[in-house]
Amino acid sequence: MPTIMTDRAEIKISFLGTGSGTSIHRAHTSIALECADGTHLLLDAGSGNSVLRNAAQLGILGPGFDQLLLSHHHPDHMDGLLFLQFWRTRSSPEGPPLRVYSTEEALEGARKLCMTSRLNLASVDQDGAYTAEGRQVLRWEATQDGRWVQLGATTRATAFPVDHISGAVGWRVESGGVSVVFSGDTRFSPNLVAAAKGARLLIHEAFCTETDKEYANTQRHSTGADAGRAAAQAGVAELVITHIATPFHFNPQPLADDARRYFDGPISVASDLYQMTVGGA
Predict the structure, then answer these.
(1) Could you report the per-residue pLDDT of 110-164, keeping only the tens digit for each?
(2) Predicted pLDDT at 3
(3) What does pTM read for this prediction?
(4) How far apart are the C-alpha atoms of 117 and 110, rounded to whole Å?
(5) Exposure letters 172-186 (e unless 16+ CB within 10 A, then b)
(6) 78 touches 100 (CB < 8 A)
């Protein structure tokens, strides 16, 4: 079982991947949350073995991470699931299955991925994925809009639809009174604004600046200004920008400046291996 971090209400956040799908300098999207009640979970799984490598560098990789909140089934957010379950199965043969929470549409994409790869997997059904010995190593947990899922003693999460592809969602995670909202991939979304009301932290994608707003819109992504507008309208305390495209890797400041046009709270742009801790008011 995970060790309880502290009696104080707080969430430690580790950015294991902060790149967009075409990024050549950053790992694909994945964020680890460690909550005060001992709950450890992942927001998206990146691609390849980047989650495993970067988590190992931060010293946070362990069997305690047995819950994954998936935003959608694009490969840069989901493909790392294969290697995550493979490592967990080998390192903890008697451990529980990795519970994967998302919409039914996204979970169907995960099932197809597992059936195609067969990496350490012999069968896949509506409930989960299994090794040749019959051990369940993945458990699918379909979510519904507005329904809260209890993840730990004081930690819960709810998904909300966003404007990207069919079945895409963002997530609000609450633990001990501290709330963190993750946009996943999306254009500016009123659903996200409503779900993020009063959150301690909003983690929001920004594909480019407002100068290229039309292009971002055709790709179903947000600008830095969109992230700032969402943060301001939701009344969050802090904004972190992620899902960074290659042109902004070495100088992401224009994304933060774009968001600053609308949001006057703290703004930062995440990078791979960046860690922060947020607490209550």
Answers:
(1) 999 999 998 999 999 999 999 999 999 999 999 987 899 999 999 999 999 999 9
(2) 42
(3) 0.95
(4) 11
(5) bbbbbebbbbbbbbb
(6) no
Residue with tokens 């996200």: 192
User: In b/e form, how buried is each residue of 230-242, taking b as 16+ CB within 10 angstroms?
Assistant: bbbbbebebbbbb
Q: How many of the other CB atoms lie within 10 Å of CB of 280?
A: 14
Q: Is the dihedral of CA 220, 241, 234, 214 positive or negative?
A: negative
Distance from CA of residue 101 to its chain's centroid?
Answer: 11
Assign 100 to helix, strand or coil: strand
Q: Which residues contact 38 (CB under 8 A, 6 or more apart)?
A: 1, 2, 3, 4, 5, 64, 152, 153
Contact predicate 183/230, CB 8 Å: yes
79 bridge partner residues: none
What's the half-sphere exposure (Cβ side, CA atoms, 13 Å) at 156? 10
215 C-beta neighbours (distance < 10 Å), count = 12
Mean pLDDT lowest for which of 5-19, 43-57, 253-267? 5-19
> Edge-to-edge strands of the sheet including 201-205?
148-150, 155-161, 169-175, 178-182, 201-205, 239-242, 267-269
Amino acid at 49: N
> What tokens does 69 get?
């909140």
Contact 113, 126 (CB under 8 A): no
Residue linked to tokens 């301001």: 232
3-state DSSP helix/strand/coil % of the chain, to nearest 5: 25, 30, 45
What is the C-alpha separation between 223 and 204, in angstroms, rounded? 10
Which residue type occupies 243?
H
Coil, helix or strand for 88?
helix
